[in-house]
């Protein structure tokens, strides 16, 4: 029925999106969802080119970065992806995912994400450890990173002055100040307080 897999995917996604009344959040994960799955590259992938052209503009596209589990993300790579998809991607970040090896638990700070990513993103989802309690540090440090990114964006864009003012009056990080080590220490401090609070609850 369809001349290509990409056109089939886009057609079905568009039809479902319209049938649901074009919701404000509608995520589409392409078959080629990271650079290592693209042939020969994201910008030259016939599949992604067709997806970018055929997919309705209100549909967001999920992307994991250079690899399925990406150690680093850069604005340059995201700019290439945005160009071929004709929209900013939603990053599905597998940095902490351990479903492929449940013997490992990732407790380090959110890192490897270059400053200036937020303007290149339509959103960011964090795929966490399978163990619920082990995700306190990943999510806490992600929040610290994101607050720092918001401060950077607001300081570069006069339209974001309200965000900048809000951050100026908070104790959060300011422009260019994100430090994985400091974020980790903040998370550990709050995690210990959370653990101690839970220990005081009846029945603990």
Task: Summarize this entry quickly.
42% of the residues lie in helices and 7% in strands.
Structure characterization notes:
This protein is α/β, with parallel strands linked by helices and 204 residues long. The chain has one domain: Glycosidases (TIM Barrel, Alpha-Beta Barrel), CATH 3.20.20. 42% of the residues lie in helices and 7% in strands. The protein has six helices and four strands, in the order H-E-H-E-H-E-E-H-H-H. It has a four-stranded parallel beta sheet with strand order 1-2-3-4, with no helix packed on it. Strand 1, helix 2 (46-54) and strand 2 (60-63) form a beta-alpha-beta unit. Helix 1 packs parallel to helix 2 (46-54), helix 4 (136-156) crosses helix 5 and helix 4 (136-156) packs across helix 6 (180-200). The longest helix has 21 residues, at 136-156. It is elongated and about 65 Å long. The termini are far apart. It comes from Neopipo cinnamomea. This is OGA GlcNAcase. Residues 1-150 form the GH84 domain. Pfam families: NAGidase. GO terms for molecular function: beta-N-acetylglucosaminidase activity.
Low-confidence stretches: 158-175
Q: Describe the biggest sheet?
A: 4 strands, parallel
Strand order of the biggest β-sheet: 1-2-3-4
- What CATH calls the topology is TIM Barrel
- What is the strand content? 5-15%
The count of strands amounts to 4
CATH architectural arrangement: Alpha-Beta Barrel
Q: In the CATH hierarchy, what is the superfamily?
A: Glycosidases
Q: So what's the overall shape?
A: elongated
Q: Helices and strands, in N-to-C order?
A: HEHEHEEHHH
Give the class from helix and strand content and strand pairing: alpha/beta
- Helical fraction equals 40-55%
N- to C-terminal distance:
61 Å
């Amino acid at each position: 029925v369809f001349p290509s897999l990409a056109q089939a995917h886009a057609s079905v996604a568009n039809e479902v999106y319209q049938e649901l009344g074009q919701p404000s959040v509608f995520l589409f994960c392409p078959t080629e969802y990271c650079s290592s799955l693209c042939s020969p590259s994201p910008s030259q992938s016939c599949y992604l080119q067709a997806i970018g052209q055929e997919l309705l503009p209100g549909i967001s596209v999920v992307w994991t970065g250079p690899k399925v589990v990406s150690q680093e993300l850069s604005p340059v790579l995201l700019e290439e992806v945005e160009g071929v998809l004709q929209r900013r991607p939603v990053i599905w970040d597998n940095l902490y995912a351990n479903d492929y090896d449940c013997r490992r638990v990732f407790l380090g700070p959110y890192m490897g994400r270059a400053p200036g990513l937020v303007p290149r993103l339509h959103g960011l989802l964090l795929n966490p450890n399978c163990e619920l309690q082990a995700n306190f540090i990943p999510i806490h440090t992600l929040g610290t990173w994101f607050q720092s990114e918001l401060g950077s964006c607001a300081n570069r864009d006069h339209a974001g002055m309200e965000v900048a003012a809000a951050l100026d009056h908070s104790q959060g990080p300011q422009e260019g100040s994100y430090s994985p080590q400091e974020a980790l220490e903040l998370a550990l401090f709050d995690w210990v307080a959370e653990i101690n609070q839970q220990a005081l609850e009846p029945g603990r």
